[in-house]
Amino acid sequence: MSEADNPGKSWTDRLFGGFRKTSERLSENLTSVVGTAKLDDATLDDVEDALIMSDLGPSAAARIRSRLAEKRFGLEISQRELKEAVAEEIAEILRPVAKPLEITAFPRPQVILVIGVNGSGKTTTIAKLAHLLQEDDYGVMLAAGDTFRAAAIGQLATWAERINVPIIRGPEGGDPASVVFDAVKAATDKGIDALIVDTAGRLQNKRELMDELAKIRRVLGRLNPEAPHDVVLVLDATNGQNALAQIDVFKEVAGVTGLIMTKLDGTARGGVLVAAAEQYGLPIHAIGVGEKIDDLRPFDPDLVARVIAGVA
What we know:
Elements: H1 11-18, H2 20-33, H3 41-53, H4 58-72, H5 79-94, E1 110-115, H6 122-135, E2 140-144, H7 150-163, E3 167-168, H8 176-190, E4 194-198, H9 206-223, E5 230-236, H10 242-254, E6 258-262, H11 272-280, E7 284-288, E8 296-297, H12 301-309
Parallel strand pairs: 1-4, 1-5, 2-3, 2-4, 5-6, 6-7
Antiparallel strand pairs: 7-8
Helix pairs in contact: 2-3, 3-4, 4-5, 5-12, 6-7, 8-9
């Protein structure tokens, strides 16, 4: 069991576990650069390099360097003060994108398409998201729209039973759009608040995936012109900078409206959360720090920033 997966720990403690690798790396890198009494150009260059090496990405690193220079250039700065200053600049990047997924659609249901490459933790994240919405007293239904993998259908059905939510599924190899059509009708009839739809995660053929998602959108549009209300991309944080390439692809093929970052389990390169916020500005709805059902939560940008910088 990972540190982040220990149910006896607070959410803050689990965040520390999830961001441990990033925090330790950034702390080491920042500690090593404060060798002078004042924040000069050479030190700022080293800070920028430290941020890039911690997976925050060149754009966020350059922005933080610029802000530090603007506020602190030529001033004496201790290691603690530097980490505090970096934490504040990271928070400035994260605050605008910290947006919990809100259920506001009328008429119901709010249709949430969940997309992501196979292996990103997509199916488990759907269950965690359903549980999160249940905690707010919303009625939830799942739709097994990834019909190309029997394992995906079976896994989603197991989770649906475990958290006691209805699921609509079809046969393996069936038409995903038909499953979605049946699910929307069933959710409407039952007065369900949120319908969460799993989708195929095959990126080997972008055109095929794009066509499939377009068909699902057409079917949804006939039933509810506003649907899908959300297109949420699940990203595996262990992929580091490669996760950003997935945002590029899925923005193109699916019109991503928000992100969920998973697998912040202590081995992940959590700095990519900052890189994604800086580069794309997409809402980040939640982060996952373990495998348990309650290990997905809306994230507090200030707390996450301080955890990453090692000062929480």
